[in-house]
Amino acid sequence: MSDATLDDRGRLTLPKEMRERYGDRYHVVDVHDGIKLIPVADDPLDALRDEFADVETSAEELREAARDAALDGAGR
Question: What positions does the domain SpoVT-AbrB occupy (predicted)?
Fold first, then answer.
C-alpha cells in the first residue's frame, strides 16, 4: 500500500510503479467507507475480449439461459 496526497488544485498523483502497472485512466467509485480507483483499459473492448477469450458459450446461448432463468424466477 502507498500513500498519496492531493495537491492544491485537488489532483492526486499515484506512485510511478502503480501507474506503470495499472495505466493512466481510472473510474473513481464512491464506496461506503472511501473511494476505489478502477483502472480503465486503453481499449475496453480488447480488454473484454481478452477477459472472456476462454468462454465457449455463444452470446445467443447466454441470452437464452438468462431468459430461461428469468422466466423460471417469475414462476413459469
Answer: 4-45
* 35-51 per-position pLDDT tens digit: 999 999 888 888 888 88
From the list 25, 28, 52, the residue with the least C-alpha distance to 39 is 25
**What's the CA gap between 48 and 42, in Å, rounded?**
11
- Annotation: CATH topology of 1-40: Pemi-like Protein 1; Chain: D (2.10.260)
- The answer to whether 43 and 49 are in contact (CB under 8 A) is no
How far apart CA 59 and CA 61 sit, in angstroms, is 5
Distance CA 8, CA 31 (A): 24
CA distance 4 to 15: 8
Q: Distance (Å, rounded) from C-alpha 39 to C-alpha 22?
A: 6
